[in-house]
C-alpha cells in the first residue's frame, strides 16, 4: 500500500497503489521490449504503425490512430516521417476519395519483417515471469480496466 502519509480513503489508497504498480510495471516491460527499436531508427509509434500495417494490411490514418492509440494529429506526423523514409505510402482510398489508405512499401515490409521476430521474442521473454494462466488473467484484467475507463469516459462525455 501507499505510505501512511497518504490521508485519503482506503478506496483511494488501493486505487493509487494499483495504478502506481501498473505504471511502473508497464514502463519496466516497455523499456525492456522497445530498446531495440532505436537501433533500427524507429520510435515506438513508428513501429506500431509498421506492425499494424504488416499484420492488418492497408488502413486509413484514423484506423491506424485507433490501433496504436494515438491522436489523428500525431499519427499524421508519424506517417509523414515513415513516408519520407520510404517505408509507407499513402494512396487515395478507392471507396471514398476523401480519405487516404496507408500501406507498407517493399522497404517497409523488409524492415518490419526483419525486426518483428526479435520484438515478439522480447515480449515473450519479458512476459515469461508470469505463467500462461497469469498472463491470461493479466490480459483479462487489463481489458476490463480499459473497457471500464472507456465506459466511464463515455458516460462523462454524455453528461
Overview of the molecule:
- The longest helix has 30 residues, at 10-39.
- The chain has helices spanning 10-39, 44-56, 61-68, 72-84, 106-127, 132-158, and strands at residues 59-60, 88-92, 100-104.
- β2 (88-92) and β3 form a beta hairpin.
- A 3-stranded antiparallel beta sheet has the order 1-3-2.
- The protein contains 6 helices and 3 strands.
- With 159 residues, it is mainly alpha-helical.
- It has a single domain, classed as Winged helix-like DNA-binding domain superfamily/Winged helix DNA-binding domain (Arc Repressor Mutant, subunit A, Orthogonal Bundle).
- The model has no long low-confidence stretch (mean pLDDT 87).
Question: Which CATH class is shown?
Answer: Mainly Alpha
CATH superfamily: Winged helix-like DNA-binding domain superfamily/Winged helix DNA-binding domain
Q: Please outline the major beta sheet.
A: 3 strands, antiparallel
Q: Considering DSSP H and I runs of 4 or more, what fraction of the residues is helical?
A: over 70%
Q: Would you tell me the overall average pLDDT?
A: 87
Radius of gyration: 19 Å
Shape type: globular
Task: Offer a few descriptive terms.
159 residues, mainly alpha, Arc Repressor Mutant, subunit A, 3-stranded antiparallel β-sheet, 6 helices, 71% helix, globular
